[in-house]
Amino acid sequence: GIELGKLLASTGYITYDPGFVNTGSTSSAITYIDGDAGILRYRGYPIEQLAENSSFLEVSYLLIYGELPTQEQLEDFTQKINRHTLLHEDLKRFFDGFPRDAHPMPVLSSAVSALSTFYQDSLNPFDEPNVELSTVRLLAKVPTLAAYAYKKSVGQPFLYPDNSLGLVENFLRMTFGLPAEPYEVDPDIAKALDLLFILHADHEQNCSTSTVRLVGSSEANLFASISAGIMALFGPLHGGANSAVLEMLQGIKADGGDVAQFVNRVKNKEQGVRLMGFGHRVYKNYDPRAKIIKTTADQILNKLGVNDHLLDIAKTLEETALSDDYFVERKLYPNVDFYTGLIYRALGFPTKFFTVLFALGRLPGWIAHWREMIQDPATKIGRPRQIYTGEKQRDYLAISER
Ligand code: ACO
Asked: Does position 214 have pLDDT exceeding 90, yes or no?
């Protein structure tokens, strides 16, 4: 395939492929997906096994370095990350400049972009120790930045990280804790969030990961590339879908809970009405992540004693869609985002914040792809071609003659 691609490029022909439906932009050894069979593997390990047995930090290590860590490697990795969770005090002041009701995704992206200005010592993409340092800085500081974006939106003071806690526990404490009150991390909540982060950690050449690679292909630094990836994830057709699903479910409830009526609006292709959390460019079968999340949603809501009518609406919606020819013919199944919002809501996160949680989960995948891209001798600057459809040539007209 790679050789054929090179040969075609040398002939001068251009492949017209809007949305890159059939274009391989790179080779990669990180994540394998078989969309027809509903298979997802990180570095060869089935997602089901990782979800059952692993932790988010271990999976991050696996994605970035290619192998599961030994006990010693994992301890070293954890310690390094714990040492870098603090932010420069000047960086904290950035948050003062944003409106209180700003969406946390652009706030997070701006803060990550600003890391390039604070850590100028680790920007060279070809200096391996510095890439390593940027990697650790990102994994350690993005949860702190995300928690501060939340604190800013609710008008509460920022908490310093407590490095005796694990990554997810620390993030939960910085998000929901208050300075004067002790905050006990609920182990069920921490476990649920850790699992969701594992399930989101990578998904090969999706829109945000391709963005990270494209920006990085110009040899832009890791912080700059990740900041762009966060903005690609913001869109409702990508990571923003998790918030959009919850808004859709709330809309159905507000309209009296008539699921069949909503499904009809989707089938009639009413402008702007899609079944959010359904469909996927690659999966033409049940998304394996959605399968795990559906079970988790039930368990977590039960454990937390949350009785959310929106979960019933979601299940009815799924049943209705899966037995309807419109969705069957188009192979539309629930994707990762269909049930996540309900869990995030039960854990206490506001709807606007859901996509930030996706970004926290996807971070190690973006880093792994950027590093693979920068080390690959076959990497060239990303520069797609086009089919020009404008005017052929015309002569300039003076403004008085137009
Ligand atoms: N609801 C209703 N119809 C849909 C949906 C949906 N969610 N998704 C696709 N379709 C229909 C399209 O209208 C089209 O029908 P047509 O052939 O009659 O025109 C057909 O299915 C194919 O859809 P495309 O838009 O061509 O599929 P594409 O691969 O470009 O889009 C996408 C994939 C963006 C994920 C789409 O399914 C979608 O918009 N889903 C809703 C948003 C969503 O959940 N996004 C999260 C994706 S997962 C992730 O990023 C983490």
From this structure: yes
Burial of 179 (C-beta count, 10 Å sphere; 0-12/13-18/19+): exposed
Query: 54 pLDDT exceeds 80?
Result: yes
Q: CB neighbours (10 Å) of residue 99?
A: 9
pLDDT per residue over 1-24, tens digit each? 677 777 877 787 888 999 999 999
For atom 2 of ligand 1, the residue with the nearest CA is 274
For residue 261, what are the contacts with CB-CB under 8 A and spacing of at least 6? 255
Q: What is the rounded average pLDDT of the residues 30-56?
A: 97
Q: Which of 117, 304, 297, 320 is nearest to 223 (CA)?
A: 117
Determine if ligand 1 sits within 6 Å of the CB of residue 289: no
Distance (Å) from CA 28 to ligand 1 centroid = 25
Tell which one of 22, 282, 332, 355 to mutate to probe ligand 1, the residue whose CB is within 8 A of the most ligand atoms.
Answer: 332
Q: Residue 195: which pLDDT band, with cuts at 50, 70 and 90? A: very high
Rounded to two decimals, the pTM is 0.93
DSSP 401: G
Residue bearing the CA closest to ligand 1, atom 16: 330
308 is an active site residue: no
Query: Is 332 near ligand 1, meaning CB less than 6 Å away?
Result: yes
